[in-house]
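User: Just a sanity check before I run the rest of the batch. Below are the structure tokens for the first item. I only need the designed sequence back.
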């Protein structure tokens, strides 16, 4: 079977985790260590944030560098195979993230988004940002 067939793409996409990713676990463990409690993957909040602080109305997203289009204008030129699929897919993700941000902010939420590379390189700084936001709320 062609590795670019719709069926193979569907199978590959199904293997990708959306909850409990390694970056999400890293950030959750750091927050838990600090005694900061949260709800995870809250489906009743727009965009199903990875972490939610309902009382403070703070939503946190842990965004994969690739799937959410970090440095997209630069990175999309590096996509060599199946460009007709991947470029619109990632651009839809970027637009969806922007729409979710607008919806949450208009509903009075603070939205924090952390890139995968930020979490991996400095999880404590990301947790500091969340903690500061919660304390100021």
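Assistant: Here's the designed sequence for the first item:
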């Amino acid at each position: 079977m062609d590795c670019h067939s719709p069926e193979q793409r569907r199978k590959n996409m199904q293997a990708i985790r959306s909850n409990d990713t390694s970056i999400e676990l890293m950030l959750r463990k750091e927050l838990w260590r600090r005694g900061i409690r949260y709800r995870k993957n809250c489906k009743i909040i727009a965009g199903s944030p990875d972490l939610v602080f309902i009382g403070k109305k703070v939503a946190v997203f842990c965004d994969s560098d690739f799937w959410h289009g970090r440095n997209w204008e630069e990175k999309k030129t590096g996509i060599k195979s199946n460009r007709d699929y991947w470029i619109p897919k990632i651009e839809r993700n970027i637009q969806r993230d922007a729409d979710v941000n607008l919806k949450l902010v208009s509903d009075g939420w603070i939205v924090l988004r952390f890139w995968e590379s930020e979490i991996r390189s400095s999880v404590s700084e990301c947790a500091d940002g969340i903690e500061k936001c919660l304390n100021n709320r």
